[in-house]
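Let us practice reading a record.
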Amino acid sequence: MKNKLIAFAITGLLTATAFGQSATTTTKPTIKQRKHHQQARIRQGVKSGELTHGEAKHIEKQEHALNKEERQMRKADGGKLTAADRAKLNRQQNHLSKEIYKDKHNNRKRG
């Protein structure tokens, strides 16, 4: 009985440790995942009225230019992105994300 209790306690500790490690080990989203997430944010902003049509159009235009630049980068490097390309795209996606936030949280409403 005592051995079962000790084994159960050890199993519980190991399980808790595993969950604790998996929760802190987060991976960065890929460029593709970020594109999808930002598109969803734009759609939600238009649907809720937080983004005006002009704001959404401007953001979509920037997103289109970013996608075009990514395609050109991939084409130049045989279908792959270099680390420098990924870093540049990440900075540009950060900028676009901030712009989406700023536009969604200004006082302009679609009407």
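A brief commentary: The radius of gyration is 22 Å.
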